[in-house]
Amino acid sequence: MTTVIDIDVRGTQHCETTALGVLLRHQGLDLSEPMLFGLGSGLSFIYWDSKNMGFPFLGGRVKPFDLTRNLATTLGLELLVQETTSPRRAWENVVAPIDAGHPVGLQLDSYHLDYFGSKVHFGGHVVAMYGYDDRDAYLVDTGQQGGAVSTSLASLAEARAARGPMAAKHRSFTLTAPGNPPSPQDRIVPAITACADAFLNPPIANLGHRGIEKAGKLVRTWLQRTDAPQRDLPQAALLMEKAGTGGALFRNLYRDFLAECSQQLDSGHLRTGHRLYTEAATLWTEVAALITKAGESGDAQSLVQAGTILRDLSRIEREAMQALRCLGSVSPHPNQS
């Protein structure tokens, strides 16, 4: 027996927005990936290091699944989330909506998926599932991972049952659009200002613009932080550029979101934010290149340069978010063109 739903597959860049795009297009709501990311207030920053970690991690977005929750709230979507410790119940939670003709989002550990090229544990990976047969599950992942892909039912069960950082208990979810959903254009300003407020007022120094400033100080010590700099530093840079971030630690996606918003709303604050995030995106890619160079060559000066740019990035992104937060106090005019 095979149950497969007719879906619109696109080779997008980030796992959670890829899955959200599949689910929402099936509901008749077709938004670009940058718009999904921005309306989900997805941009953030975290410098994450602890005793049980082999090497520090730089993250550029909100926690896994927060983007989905934010987007559902912003667009007035019904978000049904199911979690369980029972593998049998977890499978029933997925089969029921698919048999009824609706794709399902899954959060799982990408390490166990048959098609995944990079075998690294990541419990915050999100895919859309649109079909199954007696042997395989049919999924949609990022363009980098192949778009429409399949994995064995056994590997899917392992991925869903995995435990560890960011993992969820067999989490599955569906999205349902209301009969008269709000216009995405009407929700742009609240989504941007919510993102800006969180970025400008982080509860701890590892987050937001304060986190970027902290990273600028600590990145200079990274050659001493590891016994294998030739492995760990290029890997950290790769995660910033290639691991589903859309490049520049998600700043390319947010830059493109702001550009799309600028076509719909006439606002100097919005244009300022877009200009600054265009600059920031270029600098993040430069930081990643310097971290790679330091790891490969052992040149500490490259990390000093990266730290200096990160300090500048903390200021640039703070100024960008301060401008964007001002959108909440004025009424941008819809562009007439």
UniProtKB/TrEMBL annotation:
Which intervals hold domain DUF4872?
A: 155-324
Domain Butirosin biosynthesis protein H N-terminal residue range list: 14-142
Per the UniProt entry, the signal peptide is none
Pfam families named in the record: BtrH_N, DUF4872
Stored InterPro entries: BtrH_N (IPR026935), DUF4872 (IPR032369)
Q: Could you tell me what this protein is called?
A: BtrH N-terminal domain-containing protein
Q: Which organism is it from?
A: Streptomyces lonegramiae
